[in-house]
Design brief:
The complex is a heterodimer of chains A (116) and B (111). Chain A is mainly beta. In chain A, 0% of the residues lie in helices and 46% in strands. In chain A, strands 2, 4, 5, 8, 9 and 10 form a six-stranded mixed sheet that branches. A four-stranded antiparallel sheet of chain A has the order 1-3-7-6, with no helix packed on it. Chain B has a single domain (4-110), classed as Immunoglobulins (Immunoglobulin-like). The chains are: A mainly beta (116), B mainly beta (111). The interface between A and B is medium-sized, with 29 and 27 residues.
Chain lengths: 116, 111
C-alpha cells in the first residue's frame, strides 16, 4: 500500500508569512508524529497524535506552531509568522499502535521549508 | 535537545569493509531503533532492539544493546556503495510518546 506522503515537498516563503504543511499517514495507522530536522542535525520531536486523544504538544518550540489532525487521517502543521530559524525539513511519521515496546514509525519524504 | 549521541559523526570506508556506528543515550528506554536517511529526507526503519535484548541480526546488520552502559552499536558487514547514507539511532524512552533521535553518523562507502 501507499506510504506516508507529505506536501509540498519544498516550500520557500518570506519571513513573516504563514505556512501550512500537510501529512497523509498510512491508512489505518492510529499514531502520527511531526518532527523537525535542521541541516546536518538529528530529528526534534514536535507533536504526537494518537486516535482521538488529546495530542502531545510538548515538542512545539513556540506558540507560532500548531497542528491539527482529523480522526485518524490527514494532519496539517501550521507555522505562523515564519522566521528564518524555522528553515528545516519537517518530517511526518505514522505508526499502527499506540506507543509500545515494539512499534515502528514510517516516515514521509518530508517538506523542506526555506524562510527567506 | 538531543537525547542521543552518535560516533563517529562521519565514517568513510571501502566497499566490502565493515562499518560500526555507536550510540549513547541518557535515560531509561523501552527500545532502541536504528534508521537510515538518504539525502536528508525520509527515514527508513532498519531494526529495533528491545531493552531486554542484547543482540539482534537482520541481514547484513547486527545491533547490540548494553543498557548498563546506555549504549548501542550498529554493524553493517560487507558494505556496499548503496549503504552510503546517514544512520540515526532513536530511543523510545520509558513513558514517552515519541522517539528521541541521536545526532547521526554519515557513512560513505567508496566503490
Amino acid at each position: 500500500g501507499a506510504g506516508v506522503s507529505q506536501s509540498p515537498s519544498n516550500k520557500v516563503t518570506e519571513k513573516g508569512k504563514d505556512v501550512e504543511l500537510r501529512c497523509d499517514p498510512i491508512s489505518g495507522h492510529t499514531a502520527l508524529y511531526w518532527y523537525r530536522q535542521r541541516l546536518g542535525q538529528g530529528l526534534e520531536f514536535l507533536i504526537y497524535f494518537q486516535g482521538n486523544s488529546a495530542p502531545d504538544k510538548s515538542g512545539l518550540p513556540s506558540d507560532r506552531f500548531s497542528a491539527e489532525r482529523t480522526g485518524e487521517s490527514v494532519s496539517t502543521l501550521t507555522i505562523q509568522r515564519t522566521q528564518q530559524e524555522d528553515s528545516a525539513v519537517y518530517l511526518c511519521a505514522s505508526s499502527f499502535h499506540s506507543p509500545t515496546n515494539t512499534d515502528t514509525q514510517y516516515f514521509g519524504p518530508g517538506t523542506r521549508l526555506t524562510v527567506l | 535537545s538531543q537525547q542521543g549521541e552518535e560516533d563517529p559523526q562521519a565514517l568513510s570506508i571501502q566497499e566490502g569493509e565493515n562499518a560500526t556506528m555507536n550510540c549513547s543515550y541518557k535515560t531509561s528506554i523501552n527500545n532502541l531503533q536504528w534508521y537510515r536517511q538518504n539525502s536528508g529526507r525520509g527515514l527508513v526503519h532498519l531494526i529495533l532492539i528491545r531493552s531486554n535484548e542484547r543482540e539482534k541480526h537482520s541481514g547484513r546488520l547486527r545491533v547490540t544493546l548494553d543498557t548498563s552502559k546506555k549504549s548501542s552499536s550498529l554493524l553493517i558487514t560487507a558494505s556496499r556503495a548503496a549503504d552510503t547514507a546517514s544512520y540515526f539511532c532513536a530511543m523510545r524512552q520509558t513513558g514517552a510518546n515519541n522517539l528521541f533521535f541521536g545526532t547521526g553518523t554519515r557513512l560513505t562507502v567508496i566503490p
